[in-house]
Write a structure and sequence with these properties.
The protein is α/β, with parallel strands linked by helices. The chain has 10 helices and 14 strands. Strands 6-7-8-3-9-10 form a 6-stranded mixed sheet, with helices on both faces. A 4-stranded antiparallel sheet has the order 2-1-4-5.
């Protein structure tokens, strides 16, 4: 799969010396969903704004569909749709006119059939004649997506698209994103909801302090960095872990012991642990395993970079 967006040694500095982006290198693959994770102030929005031409880079280069964003800005920008964090819509305009206007801004000819399809896909068709001020926050975010799609971009940036949206509407929007991917749109998603990235992304990128820490296939990342925990429920609580079990670094809470192990290791140590538990006179009532989540991996990566 080839890259549709290529970012090379991108830097952005502000007056006073603050460097928001510090030599970012990133290839975004054609047709993928890339989730970009990072704490507040990590540089997510600055990176998106710079790729979209809203922010001028201090140095480095960006190409979109082979077009340099500095020397061929219009050609590059025509390929990009952007859904910003902030809801900034004309409150007295109707939904359909708002979306039509965005298409016209990009110099595209009127296409009522396309606009109708976009609004239907986003469950906005029945509200097409409503004024923006009559819509809920979640519906306004859908209008932002419709605006971004109106000129038929190949690359769509979603900057915190489900912030402040209830869980049910958030899942509806995940389905919208999945349909966009099926139609060949490349999607870059920034989110604070890590379960969102875990649910819909093909690859995960982690940014911290203006630098990309990693970009990796989601499944491979979770397999490589994920750990499993064995939860051992005893028939009675323990006040202290026996010395004979010290090597397992068990965590005890009431009648539950937790053993963390690496799934990539040649041996998990579980068989030996269960044997040693029996020798120590601890009676098991139940056991279960838990896989570390993407959130656990993300928190660990950011802590290491702190």
């Amino acid at each position: 799969m080839s890259a549709i967006v290529t970012v090379t040694d991108l830097r952005k500095s502000y007056a006073g010396g603050f460097e928001a982006l510090s030599g970012v290198n990133l290839d975004i693959l054609d047709g993928e969903i890339l989730a970009l994770l990072g704490p507040n102030g990590a540089g997510k929005t600055t990176l998106i704004s710079t790729i979209c031409g809203i922010t001028v880079p201090t140095s480095g280069s960006i190409t979109v569909g082979g077009h340099d964003t500095q020397t061929a800005y219009r050609k590059a920008r025509d390929l990009i749709g952007l859904v910003p964090q902030e809801i900034n819509l004309e409150p007295f305009e109707t939904v359909i006119n708002t979306v039509r206007f965005s298409r016209g801004v990009f110099g595209k000819p009127r296409n009522d059939a396309l606009i109708e399809q976009i609004l239907k896909d986003l469950s906005l068709w029945d509200k097409k004649d409503n004024k923006i001020m009559m819509l809920s926050g979640g519906m306004k975010r859908r209008v932002l997506i419709a605006k971004a799609l109106s000129h038929e971009p190949r690359v769509l940036f979603l900057d915190e698209p489900t912030a402040g949206v209830d869980v049910e509407l958030r899942k509806d929007m995940w389905e919208v994103v999945a349909r966009l991917k099926e139609n060949g749109v490349t999607i870059i998603l920034t989110t604070h909801y890590i379960e969102e990235a875990e649910a819909i992304a093909d690859r995960i990128g982690v940014i911290s302090k203006g630098q990309i820490l990693l970009v990796e296939d989601k499944a491979a990342l979770m397999a490589r960095m994920g750990q499993k925990q064995l939860k051992i429920n005893l028939t009675a609580p323990v006040s202290a872990i026996p010395d004979s079990l010290a090597a397992y670094n068990l965590a005890a809470e009431g009648a539950t012991l937790t053993y963390t192990y690496d799934t990539k290791g040649e041996r998990t140590g579980i068989t030996a642990l269960l044997n040693d538990l029996q020798k120590a006179g601890l009676q098991m009532a139940d056991i279960e395993t838990q896989q570390s989540s993407l959130e656990d991996i993300f928190v660990g990566l950011v802590k290491e970079d702190a």
